[in-house]
Every structure is written in C-alpha cells, then in structure tokens.
Design brief:
The chain contains four helices and two strands, in the order H-H-E-H-H-E. It is mainly alpha-helical.
C-alpha cells in the first residue's frame, strides 16, 4: 500500500517538493557556512519524495551546533516551509482521497521546522538509528 501511495504522491506533489528542496540545497551549499543547511535540505527533499513508510527520529549525537543551526533555520526558512506544508495539507484533506496526502504533508512539518539533528528511517525500524 505504501508503494502505491508513494507513486501517487510522487506524481501529484512529491516530485515538485523534491525539486524545490534540491534547488534550495544547491543554493545553500554554495557557501561553506550553508553546507549543513544544504545537506538538511537534501535530506528533507528525499523524505518529501517518498514520505510513506518513513519516519523522522532524533539523533542522540546531535549537540549544541545543531540546536543553534535549528534556531537559525527556524527564523530564516523553517516557519515559511511549515506554513506551506500546513496550507497544502489542509487543502489536500478537503477530499477523502487526499487525506493520506494531507497527512504526509503534516508529517513534513516537524522536519521542515528543525531539520538538523534528525534522521529519516523506515517506519518498521524507527529505533534502529539510535
């Protein structure tokens, strides 16, 4: 079932989200300071490409630099991304067929708000990364 949902998601919105996060990641990687943020954008983009069957877990080895980076990300880009995912998630939940896709958009909100110090793992092994 998750393969079917991922394929429909890919055609309807996942590919465009992936491209957006890919472009943002490439632009962020231009500077040395932006490389961690660019890598986070790539990670979110891959998660946006195939959201069904994956989940986000916190990394235990993430320390103070990821916390400071998350605050910068939240101020500069995170809340805009989260707002976009909220709006599209609500719009998708209007129809019965769109509810799973709206929920997938809501799953992207926490990682788009604070992506540093997170890891994306398959849902059947959410504690394997720890």
């Amino acid at each position: 079932m998750k393969t079917l949902l991922n394929l429909i998601w890919l055609v309807l919105s996942g590919f465009w989200l992936f491209l957006g996060y890919l472009v943002a990641g490439l632009l962020l990687c231009i500077t040395i300071i932006g490389i961690p943020f660019g890598l986070a954008a790539f990670r979110i983009g891959l998660y946006a490409l195939w959201p069904f069957g994956q989940t986000v877990v916190d990394r235990r080895d993430a320390g103070a630099p990821s916390c400071i980076g998350n605050v910068l990300w939240l101020i500069l880009a995170g809340w805009w991304l989260a707002l976009g995912h909220i709006i599209t998630g609500v719009a998708l939940c209007i129809t019965i067929i769109g509810i799973p896709f709206g929920i997938a958009n809501f799953k992207l909100i926490p990682v788009s708000l604070m992506p540093l110090g997170k890891e994306i793992v398959p849902t059947d092994q959410p504690f394997a990364a720890r």
